[in-house]
Amino acid sequence: MRVSDADRYKNVNAVLGRLASEHARASREAATGERVTRPSDDPLAAAELVRLRHAASKVDAHRETLRSAMNDLELSESSLAAASDVFVRAKELAMQGGNGALGAGERSMLAEQVEALEQELLGIANQQGACGYLFAGSKIDAPPFAAAGVFSGDGSDHSVDVGSGATSASASGALAFTVAGGRNVFADLSQLRSALAADDAAGVRAALDGLEAARKQVEAERGKTGLSLEKLTAADGVLAQGGVDLARATERVGGADAFEAFSRMNSLSGAMERAISISKQVLDLGARWRGY
Amino acid sequence: MPALTQMLLSARDALSAQSYALGVTGQNITSSTTPAYVRREALLENRATGGVVAVGVRRVADQFVDRRWLAASSLGASASEREALLSRVEPLFDDVGGSGVGTALDQLFSGFSALAANPADPTTRQALLARADELAARLRENADTIASQREELLSRAQSVVSEINGKAAQVADLNRKIALAEAQGDDASSLRDQRDKLLLGLSSEIDITTFTDGQGGLVVRAAGTTLVEGDIAQAFEVDLAGDGSLRLSVAQSGPPAMDVTASLSGGSLAAIKEVRDSDLGSVATQLDQFAWDLAAAVNTQHAAGFGLDGLGGRALYSISATPAGAARAIALDAQMVGHPERLAASSLATTLPGGSDNAVALAGLSAQKLFAGNTRTASGSWSDLVGDVGSRVARAREETELRQSVQAQVESLRESVSGVSLDEEMVSLTKYQHAYDAAAKVLATVDELLRELLDKVGR
Fold it and tell me: Is the ipTM of this complex over 0.90?
């Protein structure tokens, strides 16, 4: 077959161009560790990467939500523990006050301590978290409890989406402190304070049962809060593992084998050097005529 | 004496013929890099009286190969043009690197989750509204870019058609000049080279086939119609058909113009039409459907909730009445612009401001099959579009590689027939030079013999 000079030049250009293109791709893969850098590199993988990134983004969003919810829930749980302690201390004061040997002055002093506990409980019930008042239900923008425990919040639950569905992420102030949970715990403290102030030993002793019931009511809500916290912690663990799995899948789908890419790049470098050397010889073929 | 005189004349003819052949060889050498140049061969013949004479020059070409060359050029140009045009669209859907509509979509749903976690927080609401606006802006930007590219492609098609018409007119003119030159016995090789170059240019713009008619004139057919016949050239026109697609027609003296769009199959014009009407048309439709589905899903759920002002029933996005043009129309609803407090996180007015169940439902939309006729999720639908664009570009790239490979083979074949080999030409140069030297030697020898004869006769 005849070989024209133009054909010879074209072949040289084509070979060098193809090698340069392959070398550039191998270099990019070796340097970035990514095999798919645009949709046309591998359309199926590119579409899968979009879905994987979306799933990873959802995991991140859910975990962010969880972190925020868990912070408030932990605060709620510790607040309820403090509220429970208030009733333990109130019971101790009631037992002291129920002692028949105690005088009116001493009961009056105990009444003042109970009043302090009432204020402490009010502070606890109006505790604020990152998202507003913890025990307000949906009325998170204002203190839910007024003096004497008048409740202006509601019993609605704050739920968050953890990927597998909505989960409760709040403690109910209504159930913990108001008659919605069985009894108005503020009234129990108030009853004790009144009996102490009135120097009514029998009334003080009668208040004991109410205080224990109030403590149990608060503890019951604390238990539910702890359970919610455990659920959120477990969900966070699942999401964390999901995030790791998604990162692995993303790497598997879109990542390049760096060693293979590096090896290919070296091999192509050698091929290019040889091609350039041979091309030079091919293009120099005409030189023999120059001295003719 | 007559024999010596005859030798003298033969030597003279030989000098002339070898000189002519040397000229042809020189032309081949100096034109070896000229595109579409066809090598020449000097045609030398014996005279009846025994001498040699240059009777002309032959362009060494093979019509069959040349036809394949033009066809391969047409398909190669079509494939590479389509790849180049589609590659300009691909970055709009490049979500592989984590930018674009897909990322904005992820951020919108993350924003809904954040709102569910902290429904009364003004910063969270402000951020979510900004993300919703960003997603709409990305969709509009992509749709606008596609629409403007489609408009550009109409201009480009008109420009290509203008080029085609210009070249067709030049081919017709060359046909006339070639016929005239050959009728006068002149060498028309250079004119044929010019015509070949024009045909090559034409083939990269539109699918052409050529053949010689009964009178020896060249006929060029393109898009199923005769573009050039002898010295007469037709002119194409391009405009938009009733359905908005490109229409190629042949201009005629009176209406209606003959529609030849369906026969268009190669060259950059076919690629422009395919990309504009098929590829970009399909991508734009899918993008519109995506925007429409997104707005419908989000608006329905958003309208079911209540803003912090206690009012519900508001749409988050405004959108066109039908899916057509939805991606260019999507925007934050006017009553939501600048009002993050109107974002409906709560499903009940009574659970404001801490109610978050509607925000949870909005975040949950990402997992529901509400797109593409309730068959795909939001990310699934978007990934389908990304994959579709990627496939189109990848297929175009593969097609280009295949066509270029075929084109290279055919060009190589044509070069093997018509291309200039400097090695061959140098051998020819040497051959004709030696033949010229030999003829000169004959001339000198005859001259010497005659001189000697005349000397002896004169004594």
Answer: no
